[in-house]
Amino acid sequence: MDKDSEVFVGLDVAKRRHAAAVAEAGRQGEVRYLGEIDADPASVRQVVARLEKRHGKLHLCYEAGPTGYGLYRQLVALGHSCTVVAPSLIPRRAGDRVKTNRRDAVQLARLLRAGELTAVWVPDGRKAPHQDAGYAGPAVCPLWVGYGGFRPHGLTTAGARG
């Protein structure tokens, strides 16, 4: 491989392991599945370094989900472009119902190369006011001070049992 080439990497992320696929630049570029990697930062760094050494420029993407934006921040800190994709806006073929980690990673790499993915906004690393430990959200009611300001389990806002 040419070190000056660019590749598009699709990651199907999960809590414990990520599936990775690579699409080489160009319409006729090869799309191949790399395999699964551990989700810890050291493993991700190792795989990204290996791909960077082999190809040079990396464009990475993954679906937004419950894993958060830590992976995005890590990849950007390593000096690569990363796109977090809205899962509901990923183009899917009619009748394509089978979902596997491998298929999803390959599809993400292929669609990223084609420029057909819609990115979501990624907040910066600072905490938003609602993430602060002192903010309890909409469940706080001054009438429930005896419960620490939180709604007791089983009570609705109207006071009826739920």
Which short descriptors sum up this protein?
single chain; 162 residues; alpha/beta; Nucleotidyltransferase, domain 5; five-stranded mixed sheet; 3 helices; 5 strands; globular
Please give a structural write-up.
With 162 residues, this protein is α/β, with parallel strands linked by helices. It folds into 2 domains: 6-114, Nucleotidyltransferase, domain 5; 127-162, no CATH class. Helices cover 23% and strands 22% of the residues. The protein has 3 helices and 5 strands; from the N terminus they run βββαβαβα. The chain has helices at residues 41-55, 70-77, 101-114; strands at 6-12, 17-24, 31-38, 57-63, 81-85. Strands 3-2-1-4-5 form a 5-stranded mixed sheet. β4, α2 and β5 form a beta-alpha-beta unit. The longest helix has 15 residues, at 41-55. The termini are far apart. The relative contact order is 0.17.
What is the topological layout?
Layout: E1 6-12, E2 17-24, E3 31-38, H1 41-55, E4 57-63, H2 70-77, E5 81-85, H3 101-114
Parallel strand pairs: 1-4, 4-5
Antiparallel strand pairs: 1-2, 2-3
Secondary-structure class: alpha/beta
What is the general shape? globular
Number of strands: 5
How big a fraction of the residues is strand? 15-25%
Helix content estimate: 10-25%
Distance between the termini: 62 Å
Q: What is the residue-mean pLDDT, rounded to a whole number?
A: 82
Strand order of the largest sheet: 3-2-1-4-5
Order of helices and strands: EEEHEHEH
Assigned CATH architecture of the largest domain: 2-Layer Sandwich
Describe the biggest sheet?
5 strands, mixed
SS element count, helices? 3
Which fold name is given in CATH as the topology of the largest domain? Nucleotidyltransferase, domain 5
Highest CATH level, the class of the largest domain: Alpha Beta
Overall domain count: 2
CATH-defined superfamily of the largest domain: Ribonuclease H-like superfamily/Ribonuclease H
